[in-house]
Amino acid sequence: MLHAILIMAHKDAAHVYRIAKHFSMDCDVYVHFDRRNELDEADLTALHSLPQVKKVLRTHAVNWGGTSVLECELNLLEVAVNNSNARYFHLISGQDYPIRSLNDFLKYFEDNDGIEFLQYTHLPHKRWEDNSYRRFEYYYPYDWAEGHENPRRWVMERVREQMRLGLKRPLPTEFDHLYGGSQWFSITRTAAETLLNYTHTQPSLYRRMWMTFAPEESYVATVLLNLTDKENVRSTNLRYIRWHYENGNRPANLGSEHFADLVRCNCFFARKFERGVSEKLLNSIDTYLLKDTSIKLMPCGGWDYDGVLSYGYDEAFSNFVLQFCQELGITSAVDMGCGSGVYVSQWREFGLPFEGYDANPHTARLSQLLMPQSQSVCGIYDLAGEETLGKTFELVVCKEVLPYIPRERMRMAAANLSRQSSHFIILLWGRSEEVPCNDIAENEMIGMFSKDFEVENYMTARLRVMLMRKDCCVLIRKGKQILDGLA
Fold it and tell me: What is the C-alpha to C-alpha distance for residues 155 and 165, in angstroms, rounded to an integer?
C-alpha cells in the first residue's frame, strides 16, 4: 500500500528533510513551504535528493488562523491526489516528527485499511468558543494582520468592533451538522477525493470559510462527516499534541521531559518540535522509537535489551494498578521486572510510591529517559538469584517476567516475590512471539508462591475484565488481608 505524506512547513527545511528521510519505503512525500521565507539552499538540495520527495511547493503565504491555511492545505492535497497512487494521505506540519518505526506505521494502516483518522467534535461544543459559534459568526482577518505590532491582538480588536456594532454573519447552511477538529489527518483516497470534489462542484461552503477563524479546523471535518460513513471515521488523528503552555508555546514545544508520554501514547506523529528545545528528544526518538534493537535472553531469564518498544505498554493494566492503589491507599509498591520503567514513570506521575527493578543491565539508563530529573531511576536486580532485595512492599507487581526465567529457577523467583510482598502481588504472564519463554498453567504459577498467599477472587475478576483476559493474570494476597472499601 502506498502512502502520501503531506508536510505543511514554515521554513525549517533541515527538519523537513529529517521527517521526509524517515519515509523511505512505500511513501510519496509532498512539501509546501511558506513562499515568504528564505530557505537554506543546501537543505533544499538535500530534500530534493530524496527519491520519495515528489514535489516541493512554495505557492502560498500562510498566516496562522487565516483562510490561507485551508487554501494551502487543499492545494497540497490536490497535488498529491493528482500525482500519486497513494491509498492514504497523511497531513502533518513541518514541526511534527514520526514517533514509531516505518514498518509499524505501514502495518497499522494495512490492518486498518479503509478507516479515516480524523479527530472531530460536533459543534457547538463547550471546548470550542464556550459552546458558541463565534468562529463562524465574525470576520477574523488574520490574512491581513501581517505588519501589525501584535497581529493576533489586532485581529481580536477587529472582532470586538463587530460585536460592539452588533454585526454577525449567518451560520453556514450547507449541512445540518457542523463539526470541528484537528487540522491534521490520515484519510483514504476515497475521502480525499470526496473532499476535493465537493469543494470544486459545490463551493459555497468553501467560500463561506473566508475569514472564518482557523477554517481548516471546521471545513474538512464538516464535509467528510456529512458526506462519508461516520462508522468508518475514528475520532483520532494519531498525533500526540500536548495542550499545555510549556517551553514557550501552547501546544507545548516538546522536550526530553515528554519522552515517556511518547513511549506510552498510541500515535505515529508528535508535535511541536522546536530548535534548541527539542534536539535531545529528537535524538532519543531516533534511537529508541524509530528503530529497535535485538533482545538477548540472559541465563537468569532477564533481557539484555537497550530499547523500550519491546516492553510494550498496556493502558488498561496501568489504570487497574492506579485504581487499586488509590482505593486501598497503598503506601509502598514495586514493579519487579520493570523493563525501561515505563509503568513506574506513569504511576509516579499520579503520586504512587513505586520503585522499579529489572535484571536488564540497561535499566537504570533507560529509566532515566522516562523519569523527571528529580526522581530516582529504577534499579538492577536478578529476581531469580540467591540475593534478596532486603525490602518489603505492600504491593508487588510482576508483569510478563516469570515465563522467561528457566524452570529450575522459577521457584526461587516466586519465593523472592513472596518475601518482597507484605500484602498483595499482581501477576501477569503469557507467551511471547519475540523471545522464547515457558508455557505455564495458572495453577502451576500460583502453586509456586508461599502458602501464605491465596487468590483474591474479586480483584482477580476485576483485573480480567479490565484487561479482557480469561487467564494468565491474577491478584494474590497474603493471609486474610482485607480490601477496605471494596465490598
Answer: 16
Alpha-carbon gap, residue 403 to 443, rounded angstroms: 14
CATH code of the domain covering residue 416? 3.40.50.150
Torsion over CA: 112, 113, 115, 117 (sign): positive
Place of cell 507487581: 397
Nearest-CA neighbor of 199 among 176, 216, 180?
216
- In whole angstroms, give the CA distance from residue 111 to residue 113: 6
Which backbone phi and psi does 205 adopt, to 5 degrees?
-65, -40
Domain span including residue 337: 296-478
Number of DSSP helices (H) and strands (E) in the chain, helices first: 17, 19
Question: CB–CB of 25/102 below 8 Å?
Answer: yes
Q: Which three cell numbers stand for residue 15?
A: 527538519
How many separate domains does the chain show?
Answer: 2
Please identify which residue in the block is written with the cell numbers 511471547: 432
Does residue 267 fall inside a structural domain?
A: no
Q: Is the pLDDT of residue 482 over 60?
A: no
Tell me what pLDDT residue 486 has. Answer: 42
Give, for 400, the enclosing helix (H) or strand (E).
none
- Cα-Cα-Cα-Cα torsion 103, 236, 207, 156, nearest 10 degrees, comes to -120
Tell me the Cα Rg of the chain: 26
Hey, which bits of 148-220 come out as E strands? 178-188
Residues 109-123 pLDDT 10s: 999 999 999 999 999
Q: What is the pLDDT of residues 372-392, one digit of tens each?
A: 887 899 999 999 998 889 899
Q: Tell me the C-alpha distance between 14 and 6, whole Å.
A: 16
Domain identity same for 39 and 160: yes
pTM over 0.90: yes
